[in-house]
Design brief:
The complex is a heterodimer. Chain A is an alpha/beta fold. Chain A is built from 5 helices and 7 strands; from the N terminus they run E-H-E-E-E-H-E-H-E-H-E-H. In chain B, a hairpin with a 5-residue loop joins strand 3 and strand 4. Classes of the chains: A alpha/beta, B alpha/beta. Chains A and B meet through helix 2 and helix 3 of A and helix 6 of B.
């Protein structure tokens, strides 16, 4: 089983919110910057890798029951995004790694996206 | 007295790299007269250099030009922003230039970006890449436009690319926008049902024309206003003081 805590070990990143969900299970992953597409495709329990920092990512993650969001490529979210994520207990992780590298590392640990 | 005005609040000129070469400000204005369009917002991608020509070309003609721009936010959502006059547009343009990446336009890939005068004469070619996102997020942009007394209309929210809905999944609450625009592919009643997060926002339609045929045949919005000004348009979008709107799919607007 992979947890949010494990991802902190796998990918050099900063946890911006959602520490209370550190031991949540991550059951798969998804990469997309189109939130309409994420809403249609991502499955509950998946971790979502994106470059979008707008606060709507929190609502989408919450709605889809995602395990968390990784902001890749050095993206810093809007300040209201972090506040909202903390309120909704959504783990928000920020990394300097590009999305491709993040996805590759997570895939290598057994996570799948279909 | 409240009168009927046919408006197209989203029109590109030859400054937009993807626009046809016949989209000179003068040609757009002459066709607006021919088609009975009373209000035209010139909205090039992240630039407003062809507004002076459009305003000059409309002198003495029954067409009002609204200064505007179609900006691309950091989220890669397109917004039509409209201003009362050239002073506000100039202040806005300064902000936009400070947030463009400063890369050069590749004419072979994207197309040329022509700045022209009211007689269709070339003034210059804008060298920097305009078809790109600004280093500014949605909320910063809407706040800045509001501070300049402008209006924000989310472009083609029914489209699968570069729309607020495609990029952000739904219209964010408190997004700071004044209305949404749907393309000719969706009517406003359908939009009411299908656009997530629309709430009480007004739905308008515009041609988003990049060619003259699209401008003439494209959808328009009818505004019932006392005068063809941005302040009146804002009242109509809020349904206040007897001002209102009606969406028209396409066709002949001459009376």
């Amino acid at each position: 089983m992979v947890t949010v805590r494990d991802i902190l070990e796998l990918v050099p990143c900063e946890m911006l919110s959602g520490r209370s969900s550190l031991d949540s299970e991550v059951r798969g992953g998804y990469v997309s910057d189109l939130l309409s597409n994420v809403m249609a495709q991502a499955q509950p329990g998946w971790i979502w890798v994106t470059m979008q920092g707008h606060q709507n990512i929190v609502a989408v993650a919450s709605l889809a029951g995602l395990a968390g969001v990784i902001l890749a490529g050095g993206v810093r979210p809007d300040p209201e995004t972090i506040e909202k994520a903390e309120r909704e207990k959504v783990p928000l992780l920020a990394t300097a790694w590009p999305a491709f590298e993040v996805a590759g590392r997570l895939y290598g640990c057994g996570l799948r996206g279909r | 007295m409240i009168r009927r005005f046919v408006a197209d609040l989203h029109v590109h000129t030859v400054l937009s790299p993807c626009a046809a070469v016949e989209m000179t400000p003068r040609n757009i204005i002459l066709h607006a007269v021919e088609c009975g369009v009373d209000i035209v917002a010139i909205t090039d991608h992240n630039a407003g250099d062809n507004l002076p020509a459009a305003i000059a070309a409309a002198q003495g003609l029954p067409v009002t030009v609204i200064p505007g721009m179609e900006v691309e936010t950091r989220e890669e959502a397109h917004l039509v922003v409209l201003f009362e006059g050239m002073r506000e547009l100039a202040a806005w343009d300064k902000f936009v230039r400070s947030r463009l990446p400063g890369r050069l336009n590749d004419e072979a890939k994207f197309g040329p970006q022509f700045v022209v005068d009211a007689e269709d004469e070339l003034i210059k070619v804008r060298p920097d890449l305009l078809l790109t996102s600004l280093d500014a997020g949605l909320s910063e942009i809407t706040a800045k436009v509001a501070a300049l007394g402008g209006i924000v209309i989310a472009s083609h929210v029914d489209r699968p690319a570069f729309s607020l809905v495609s990029q952000l999944g739904f219209i964010p609450p408190d997004a700071g926008i004044d209305a949404v625009e749907v393309s000719r592919h969706m009517d406003p009643e359908t939009a009411r049902r299908k656009i997530p997060g629309l709430g009480s926002l007004e739905v308008i339609t515009s041609s988003d024309a990049h060619a003259i045929d699209d401008f003439m045949a494209g959808p328009k919005t009818i505004f019932y206003l006392k005068a063809p000004t941005l302040a009146e348009i804002r009242l109509a979008l809020r349904g206040m003081d007897g001002r209102s709107i009606a969406v028209r799919a396409a066709g002949d607007f001459t009376r």
